[in-house]
Amino acid sequence: MARLVFFAFFLVFAFPSLSLAQGSVNVGDAIPGDLSAKDQNEKMRSFEDIKGAKGITLVFIRSADWCPHCQKQLIDLNKNAKKFSQAGYPVVTVSYDLPEKLNKFASQHGAGITMLSDPASKIIRDFGILNENSAKGTFSYGIPHPGVYIVAKNKKVQAKIFKEDYTQRPSAGEILAEIEKLNPPEVPPESMDEDPIVPGEETISIPEKIVDPVAPPEETVAPPPPALPDPNVPSEAVPEAPVVELEPDPAGLEPPVQPVSPPDAF
After folding, report:
1. Residues with Cβ < 8 Å from 12, sequence gap 6 or more?
2. Could you tell me if residue 195 is inside a domain?
3. Which of 1, 59, 106, 223 is at a distance of 20 to 30 A from 236, taking alpha carbons?
4. Is 154 among the domain residues?
5. pTM score, whole prediction
6. Considering the domain boundaries, does residue 201 fall inside one?
7. What digits encode the pLDDT tens for the residues 100-126?
8. How many CB atoms are located within 10 Å of the residue 243 CB?
């Protein structure tokens, strides 16, 4: 029996590549069930009451009680819990640990993330990630292959992250980067009322008239004289002056002619 326990322990810890079991739930699939389980406070939880604005970050760990790699990962996730919640994907972990074991870890490290207890490994089996290298009767029987699922609020898997080496876990930053790729920030449309100004470019105002300081001044041209009337073109009729008839001299005499004196001789 002791040899069997040692052999199982050897398989779990000596071959990191054995954790490359990514399960039967793939990207685009709906997660099985509703994750109904007790949390670290022995409160029954389900997907509907633990999901955020966009979904959840579902993290399967081996154990918060005895796995140092899991404990390190949990501390990292808890430090960044606010960022996950702000992104709309709060962190939810699943392990085979009993609620009291999870509560002990949460109390020691001030963990506020949701930690679900799956002692019968039902959720773990439903995802197809049970580590079958652990033999029944051993302390590690029922642990999952560690991995991360990013699940949308409609329960569809948007992404999954598994490492070939079980000692290597995706960091909080790596998971958040994956979430950001799935949900790029929205860029507001440019206003159609005014032309966009590219940063760094200067705007140049164009005057109505550009004066060349080198060019000679413009000459002032006098207006042309008025056109003379064309003699061939009949002009408007000018009224004739009235003719005044003189009365004849009653004496019938013409005015006397004054004699002209010859010029003096020199």
Report:
1. 18, 131, 133, 134, 140, 143
2. no
3. 223
4. yes
5. 0.65
6. no
7. 999 999 999 999 999 999 999 999 999
8. 5
